Amino acid sequence: MEEERNHTSVAMFVLLGLTDELKLQLFLFPVLLGIYLVTLIWNLGLIILIRMDSHLHTPMYLFLSFLSSIDICYATSISPRMLSDFFREEKVISLVACATQYFVMAWMGLSECCILAAMAIDRYVAIGSPLQYSSIMTPGLCQKMGVGALGCGFIGSLVHTVPSFSLYFCGPNVIQHFFCDAPQILSLSCSSTFSSQMFMFTVAVLVVFGSLLVVLLSYGLIVASILKSSSVKGSAKAFNTCASHLVAVTLFYGTALPVYMQPSSHHSKKQDKVLSVFYVVVIPMLNPLIYSLRNTEIRKALKRVMKRRTHSPP
Questions:
Q1: How many folded domains does the chain comprise?
Q2: In this structure, what DSSP letter does residue 193 have?
Q3: Are 200 and 160 in contact (CB under 8 A)?
Q4: To pair with 143 at 20 to 30 A between CA atoms, which of 84, 103, 120, 231?
Q5: How many CB atoms lie within 10 A of CB 297?
Q6: 168: helix, coil or strand?
Q7: Sheet of strand 92-94: strand arrangement
């Protein structure tokens, strides 16, 4: 039995990719390549700008640089492999490579949940306790919160990736997706997946929903603080400072949760792929745009940096 088990064990998987229609592939490749390049340029540019301009050395922009770093890694864990698969007839991936891809993607996804929660706390302190803001949100604390978010994501990803990819796979080996996703992998296992599913559920409750709860509580307290304020101008300014973060949270959770929360019978694989493209490919590109386009401080910082570069001696 042991020899037969080892002989039939699956070590390679086949990804079906985004689509098998040639015309659609010819359209999607340049579009997705452009999105990935814009993701790299915008996020890297934002990180460099924040580091170069001292006016942006504040908690909000420190968290934003963490978010941009996460988005670069998040998109890079999926996009290069997805783009190269457009030119492959057989999209074969080893079990180790599949596990690595999912681990990095889950690590970045969980870290993004935590960073969004940290940014919500920062906004609450800024609006609810403006006089104590600088003494509460110290650079040291913000650094610890950012590193803590990455650490929490790492542990959460490790806790459910290792059990999921340590299962016995004997066939079929076709993943109906364009990247390695744990629910798809579990459906291919020939052994019991109960413990792996429990690990995934625990991580989802503690990290994903825990972070979402922190965001909701923070905004509940923000609304309560704003309602106590008698200044209409002050209330409008407070809402304006939260607008970009609210959009980012809504886009991230609004596209990721439907994929994993609904039973598979309620939506098609094609719908899963479309939503997945949004939360792993498009949103990492949109986040820096959301925070930059309406942000006067970032525009001013860009002008200051450009001015220094222009007037600097050769």
A1: 1
A2: -
A3: yes
A4: 103
A5: 14
A6: coil
A7: 92-94, 12-15, 174-175
CB-based burial label for 192 (10 Å; 0-12, 13-18, 19+): exposed
Question: Distance (Å, rounded) from C-alpha 63 to C-alpha 261?
Answer: 28
The residue written with tokens 């923000």 in the block is 222
Domain of 73, CATH number, reads 1.20.1070.10
Give the residue numbers spanning the domain of 203: 2-311
Q: Count other Cβ atoms within 10 Å, centred on residue 64.
A: 27
Is residue 119 within 8 Å of residue 63, measured between CB atoms? yes
In whole angstroms, give the CA distance from residue 223 to residue 90: 53
Q: Report how far apart, in Å, the C-alpha atoms of 36 and of each of 26, 57, 277, 280, 295 are.
A: 16, 27, 11, 10, 23
CA distance 8 to 277: 33
- Tokens in use for 195? 């413990």
pTM: 0.91
